[in-house]
Amino acid sequence: MADTLLDRRDLAFQLYEVLDTESLNERERFSDHSRETFDAVFDTAERIAREQFASHNSLADREEPRFEDGKVTMRPEVKAAVEAYAEAGFIAGRYDYDLGGMQLPETVMTACNGFFMAANPSTAGYPFLTTAAANVIRTFGSREQQDWFLQPMLEGRFTGTMALTEPQAGSSLADLRTSAKPTDEGHYLIKGAKIYISGGEHELSDNIVNLVLARIHGAPPGVKGISMFIVPKYRLGADGNPGERNGVGLAGLIHKLGYRGTTSTALSFGDDADCHGYLVGEPHQGLKYMFQMMNEARVGVGFGAAAIGYRGYQHSLEYARDRRQGRPPSEKDPTTEPVPIIQHADVRRMLLAQKSWMEGALALCFYGARLMDDSHTHPDEAQRHQARQLLDLLTPVIKAWPSEYGPKANDLAIQVYGGAGYTREYPVEQCWRDNRLNPIHEGTNGIQAMDLLGRKVWQGNGEAIQQLFGAIQADLQEAPDERCRQWAYSLSETLQQAGKVTQSLGQALAQEPPEKGLANASVYLRLFGHICVAWMWLRQANAATQALAGEVSSADEAFYQGKLQAAQYFFHWELPTVAQDLVLLQNRDDTCYAMRDEWF
Ligand SMILES: Cc1cc2nc3c(=O)[nH]c(=O)nc-3n(C[C@H](O)[C@H](O)[C@H](O)COP(=O)(O)OP(=O)(O)OC[C@H]3O[C@@H](n4cnc5c(N)ncnc54)[C@H](O)[C@@H]3O)c2cc1C
After folding, report:
1. For residue 214, which of 269, 148, 140, 136 has the smallest C-alpha distance?
2. Looking at the annotation, which residues are catalytic?
3. Nearest to 526 by CA among 400, 394, 390, 352
4. In which band, very low, low, confident or very high, does the pLDDT at 1 lie, cut at 50, 70 and 90?
């Protein structure tokens, strides 16, 4: 089985040669850090991910959590791994020193989490959700809520969940029904049902802190009436320790295609006992608060999809070097040794596609993480604002493109293995099953597409998209040789056409019913995503070409040549495919819009 979780050479290239992550250390917040401290953090993440997470990835997939004797049981390795993650300080990795954190940049924490995602996405889910929930409480929770819940969460004693989805309200959160009735004692009584809540029940921690969206009695309908509540599994005693059981019940465990090690729960609130909830921030602002968590989670989903896609690529690469089958078409002698399948161009096609999709997707996610860093810590306010705007625009793309292409990469990994790939004896089918969740959760990719075309592109009078085009243009100018200039030219052409199409879609949206204007939003998202990933490949190709102009070791020479070949794959095989997207969008093709239910 392939040993590589995230390739350290590639990580160093992406973070230090393309993104200049070291420059973050000039900022006050990160001034104690250096490339050496970042690398030491990666060493720890890689070691724990390999020893404590990868080691039970397949076992936890085969032995799903079970509900027995009133408790959810699962393999003991999961608890040990979650504890090791917390003890190493990763839950609080981004946080201030005085909260017990390490003040690590998002870019570095994102890379760390890549090791865990590649190793075992199900077990990684528990601490990742905890970090995200803790972040909301830190930002919007009261002083008291922070004292009660934040510290135990950062230490891993309490875990977190996000509880939005209800049976009748998945994509459409406007239809949420869970209710919250105020009491004289300050808390609310929560009543309702949630479904698919990840990590909603288990015995991994002393308490589970659910962040629940609900409506306060008398709240306005739709998303404007949604508030956020902290609903713990156990109410806290006066000493801050978990005491009496709160009225959150496990209605059932949900059995899934992948991500089997993470409990997926149907939860009931206030069915058998009173369920206390504590309002976070202001009433009716719940969705806004949750969106902070979801935006972060969405970048995390994109990165996770890229990491699992990359893991499958590494497995299939190793297999293709090892598995012998057939001979080159020019070899007519059947008594000669069969060749490793990597010698067949068609197998290299499948490997290159995975490499170019996933290394492009990883680069896009790292770029997003860097924008998070800039939006929080750039010394110049105008730059912080620009980073926020650009991140906001790119979030649906960072969520959706890697999660669309991650499972496609895993599909090709299965194909590289042939029959072996279809069996449970080999790891790539699990990669595909796990990754298949990513286009669905945290807002389906269809919803991301509508968010991009219906909202994000037009925000601030289209300032963010202008900014994006400007940033791409700047990298086009940097192309250091003829080959990169050719690629820059293709990207520039596509960009111009995308600009025109965006304008005409904007006019259409102003004149037509939105259901017509948004009917092909997924096509627009694909076009947008391909442009962004091509841009990421140009940035990588520019860096690789510059490096090759100097003196490099033979290992580095192969590494950079690999980068250029993967960039070429993207520019020759992928970017041209958007021509069809452009035609559909330019013509405002109405095939799907006009199709009728009764015609199916
Ligand atoms: C394993 C797993 C873990 C999850 N974890 C959590 C969690 O921890 N917390 C939580 O709150 N939720 C969680 N979810 C729920 C998840 O976020 C939802 O499944 C997702 O948002 C989609 O909602 P739905 O399943 O109700 O699908 P639906 O909303 O019914 O969508 C079905 C299809 O219709 C499309 N569609 C829906 N509305 C529109 C529209 N207006 N326009 C165009 N297309 C539309 C969708 O894109 C999709 O293709 C999880 C789900 C799974 C499977």
Report:
1. 269
2. 442
3. 400
4. low
Which are the contacts of 481, defined by CB distance < 8 A and separation ≥ 6? 545
Ligand 1 atom nearest the C-alpha of 165 is: 11
Residue 441 Cα to ligand 1 midpoint, Å, equals: 6
Q: Which among 28, 4, 25, 27 has a CA at the least distance from the CA of 16? A: 25
Distance, CA of 182 to chain centre: 36
> Does the CB atom of residue 170 touch ligand 1 within 6 A?
yes
Length of the chain, please? 600
| Spatial contact of 106 and 41, defined as CB atoms under 8 Å apart | no
- pLDDT tens string 499-534: 999 999 999 999 999 999 999 999 999 999 999 999
Q: Report CA(62)–ligand 1 centroid distance (Å).
A: 25
Question: Ligand 1 atom 30: the closest Cα is on which residue?
Answer: 170
By the 10 Å C-beta count (0-12 exposed, 13-18 middle, 19+ buried), 369 is classed as buried
From the CB of 197, is ligand 1 less than 6 Å away? yes
Tell me the pTM: 0.97
Atom of ligand 1 nearest to the CA of 164: 11
Gap from CA of 449 to ligand 1 centroid (Å): 14
